[in-house]
Amino acid sequence: MSFFPCPSIQNNALSSDLRPLNIMDLWFTARHTNLSLRHWMYISECLLNKSNKHQNSLGEFSGKPDLPYFDKAASKNVTSPLGKTAYLNCRVKNLANRTVSWVRHRDIHLLTVGRYTYTGDQRFRSINQPPSEDWTLQIKYPQIRDSGIYECQISTTPHISQYIHLQVVEPRTDIIGAPEIFIDRGSTINLTCIVLHSPEPPSYIFWNHNNVIISYDSPRGGVNVITEKGTVTTSHLLIQEARVEDNGRYQCNPSNAQPKSINVHVLNGEYPAAMQHGGQAHQRTTHMYCLIFFACMLLHV
Fold first, then answer.
1. Do 172-289 and 69-169 fall under one CATH topology?
2. What pLDDT sits at residue 274?
3. What is the rounded distance in angstroms from the CA atom of residue 251 to the CA atom of residue 253?
4. Could you read off the pLDDT of 55-86 as tens digits, one per residue?
5. What tens digit of pLDDT does each residue of 133-155 get?
6. CA dihedral of 168, 142, 125, 70, whole degrees rounded to 10
7. N or C, which end of the chain has less CB nearby within 10 Å?
8. What is the DSSP letter of 157?
């Protein structure tokens, strides 16, 4: 059975009631009229489609359709430290009566619909404070496995989506020059420890020498530590007048990251290529390369 084209909606048909059309009201009306349910379902679908096309972002009817769209200025790449709450933001314009959902692509898992959470993992929550256009997916205590692509989806037909990539990073400790450096006797040992991807600067950093905490006011003297805290925290261990007994394993121990070690070799008159002290060792290495270069040139003459 064929039907006439969808009836046009007159202004007076909408002015009496600006509320969104309710399919249950149409169902109730169908049961108390002579029209068949099939006819009423057809008319209701027409009315719903017409009303959606004439409704703008303020819930008011206008002469032209206002489709929802994403604010492209929102970041599509988010980096979050391990364990620190992550926020993935999705800004939607002209949402009107549509719904925003969040989907995790790793396992095609529906996380939230509107402000409701649809997963048993209560670390996930959708945040929206009307009249804000921001729909933010909150992930508490993020783990490395939470890294990946998340989809912010609008309930249009077909769906409109924006994808955000989350990278959860673990705090990392590095020592410049590791795993070992060579120091000329009498020079200054300068060890630099760097703490990366930390949710906040470490409350302290200890330096160990052969598994013993270094005392900065020991009788040896000439030992100093300079620490600069920030997004990237650096700690410099300075030991003046290097001695043979300063040989050994040095370890940087931040309060909120894994320790990192380096082996220090204090040499007496030897100059390996790996020496930290650049003076005579660098000069001798350069001189050796020059001799090899000229020898090769002579062989080809």
1. yes
2. 52
3. 6
4. 333 333 333 468 999 998 888 999 998 989 99
5. 999 999 999 999 999 999 999 99
6. 0
7. C
8. S
The CATH class of 69-169 is mainly beta
Q: How far apart are CA 162 and CA 151, in angstroms?
A: 6
Radius of gyration over alpha carbons of the chain, in Å? 34
| Residue 84 to residues 66, 81, 124, Cα–Cα distance (Å) | 38, 6, 13
Res 98 pLDDT > 80: yes
Residue 260, phi then psi, degrees to nearest 5:
-135, 140
Domain spans of the chain? Answer: 1-65, 69-169, 172-289
Judge whether residue 21 has pLDDT over 70. Answer: no
Question: In terms of CATH, what superfamily is 172-289?
Answer: Immunoglobulins (2.60.40.10)
Tell me the average pLDDT of the chain.
77
Q: Which has the closest alpha carbon to 20: 44, 52, 45? A: 52
Is 286 exposed, middle or buried (CB count within 10 Å of its CB: 0-12, 13-18, 19+)?
exposed
Whether residue 281 is predicted with pLDDT greater than 90 in this model: the reply is no
Whether residue 152 contacts residue 161, with contact meaning beta carbons closer than 8 Å, is answered with yes
Is it the case that residue 42 has pLDDT exceeding 50?
no
- Rounded to whole angstroms, the Cα distance separating 163 from 178 reads 39
Instruction: Measure the CA angle with vertex 291, ends 287 and 294; round to 5°.
Output: 135
